[in-house]
Amino acid sequence: MGAVQTCFLFVLVGLLCVESKYIKYDTSSVIVPGKINVHLVAHTHDDVGWLKTVDQYYVGSNNSIQGACVQNVLDSIVPALLADKNRKFIYVEQAFFQRWWRDQSEEVQNVVKQLVSSGQLELINGGMCMHDEAAPHYIDMIDQTTLGHQFIKEEFNVTPRIGWQIDPFGHSAVQAYLLGAEVGFDSFFFGRIDYQDRAKRKGDKSLEVVWRGSKSLGSSAQIFAGAFPQNYEPPINLYYEVNDDSPILQDNPSLFDYNVGERVKEFVSAAMDQANITRTNHVMWTMGTDFKYQYAHTWYKQMDKFIHYVNQDGRVNALYSTPSIYTDAKYATNESWPLKTDDFFPYADIVKCLLDWIFYE
Ligand SMILES: *[C@@H]1O[C@H](CO)[C@@H](O)[C@H](O)[C@H]1NC(C)=O
Ligand SMILES: *[C@@H]1O[C@H](CO)[C@@H](O)[C@H](O)[C@H]1NC(C)=O
Ligand SMILES: *[C@@H]1O[C@H](CO)[C@@H](O)[C@H](O)[C@H]1NC(C)=O
């Protein structure tokens, strides 16, 4: 045999030795009362105009400014959800969703209607955008919310249950009672509060509260509200967009870098850290961030594996969830919550303070 043939044989034997074994990942977990439940909430945060215009964001042009294409997100979510009925996704910004909806065939629209009615795809917040809560007049907040909700009601015959103002800089009591409780939301979640307030709330487990925003309406217009422990991002090392560098969960023992034990350990420890600052045995992880899920399979493939192996390990229980499922789970515990009145204003961010200090002092 010549060198070429020998080499070829080695490659062939090498390929045959990498056993490929089909694994059916068990993603069917539901809430387990006696354990820490990690609610994995798959989401994207799509600013309706920020570094690019709303049109550029939708079609994915001018990607040198920011690599962001919202129609890719919505296009890729549909097959990813159809591939496993346990997977879930939330979508927020109606300015993008309605644009995409108008571009779809009747067949796709019917599939999406089924995903919404089965609860796999949940439309939350439901306004055209995630409005700022400090500068706009409340009439405009009502109008832009109404416009989005009307469409959702007409097309899907559902009403969004959850307020999801994860990126506005600080939060107003008006948002809590008028654009939250009075809209009919069951809960309201957000990412940005003053960094000192957040630190204190982590210490005394008061990130989640009952928020009574109106003095005159009192408890008749209160709402369950939660600030996230960090931002609206996943825990460290759990980012799975195509170019993200979080370590993948490599579960084929015949390949290099098998790491199931290590990655499960990291997952469990992040869950316990968050449980330590949270009332009840339910914690929510926001699995996504700005303009993510442009290729949704990369996220779901990893989350499928985590759910499978973390639950096999058994120290905590991981599940595909939504903020509605999380809210119902919190409610079912009968926990009593700290009371919050007035605003989450003024807002200061520690990162920004540091940058100001470095560049302007
Ligand atoms: C966006 O892309 C278009 C087409 O390539 C180009 O003409 C325009 O200058 C770009 N805009 C910005 C702000 O870079
Ligand atoms: C849990 O919280 C307590 C008090 O807030 C803190 O002292 C402790 O280090 C935390 N433990 C873990 C594992 O995060
Ligand atoms: C919560 O309270 C309801 C009504 O009193 C009761 O049926 C239920 O068992 C309680 N749940 C827990 C987890 O204590």
From TrEMBL:
Gene Ontology MF annotations: alpha-mannosidase activity
GO biological process per UniProt: mannose metabolic process
Organism: Salix purpurea (Purple osier willow)
Taxonomy of the source species: Eukaryota, Viridiplantae, Streptophyta, Embryophyta, Tracheophyta
Tree of life domain: Eukaryota
Domain Glycoside hydrolase family 38 N-terminal residue range list: 37-348
Name of the protein described by the UniProt record: ALPHA-MANNOSIDASE
Keywords: Signal
InterPro entries: Glyco_hydro/deAcase_b/a-brl, Glyco_hydro_38_cen_sf, Glyco_hydro_38_N, Glyco_hydro_38_N_sf, Glycosyl_Hydrlase_38
